[in-house]
Amino acid sequence: MAHEDCIFCKILNGDIPSAKVYEDEHVYAFLDISQVTKGHTLVIPKQHTKNIYETPPEVAKELFARIPQIANAIKNVYKPVGMNLLNNNEAPADQSVFHLHIHIIPRYGEDDGYSSNWTVHADDYTSGELQKIAEEIHSAIEQ
Ligand code: 5GP
Ligand code: ZN
Asked: What separation in Å is there between the alpha carbon of 18 and the centre of ligand 2?
């Protein structure tokens, strides 16, 4: 079901134009209007789902199943040196459009416009602490 105020549902309906890369029964892929790098593509499910938290497994399955094909097409056409997949969930994590989407960002070198500045905390956790965190998450996974 399309959501009235959702810009990506409007794109799916053809109410807002987009540069289509791929389409089938379940999935639509189009160029991000703000290209981080040449070929920056968004892949979305046709079924509106706000973000990864609300995504049923079947929708996730169909969405991710198309990504290797699309990524390989971008790779073959533009010969990037690498590629990043990105998915933002909730505003504090930089989600600005609340219809699930995966960014495919081809990479052309260090100064190509993309950056992800992670500060790693490898030494902050003992193996026992890592084990405890893993167990806490594991026991919260709904089967
Ligand atoms: P987010 O920040 O939610 O992960 O990414 C949303 C992306 O959607 C942004 O990179 C933004 O450029 C893109 N976007 C927003 N509105 C439109 C639009 O109307 N058309 C297209 N093609 N991309 C859009
Ligand atoms: Zn939507």
From this structure: 14
Asked if the structure places residue 42 within a domain, the reply is yes
**Cβ < 6 A, ligand 1 pocket:** 7, 16, 18, 30-34, 88, 94-97
- Asked whether the predicted pLDDT for residue 1 surpasses 70, the reply is no
What is the chain's percent helix, strand, coil content, to nearest 5? 35, 15, 45
pLDDT in tens, 24-45: 999 999 999 999 999 999 999 9
Q: How far is the CA of 112 from the centre of ligand 2 (A)?
A: 30
Q: How many domains are there within the chain? A: 1
| Ligand nearest the Cα atom of residue 12 | 2
- Long-range contacts formed by 90-98: CB under 8 A, 24+ apart: 90/51, 95/51, 97/6, 97/7, 97/8, 98/6, 98/50, 98/51
Its domain, for residue 77, covers 7-118
Q: What is the reported pTM?
A: 0.96
Residue 77 sits in a domain whose CATH number is 3.30.428.10
Catalytic residue among 99, 101, 121, 138: 101
Residue 108 lies in a domain: yes
Q: Is 48 a residue of the active site?
A: no
In a domain, 135, yes or no: no
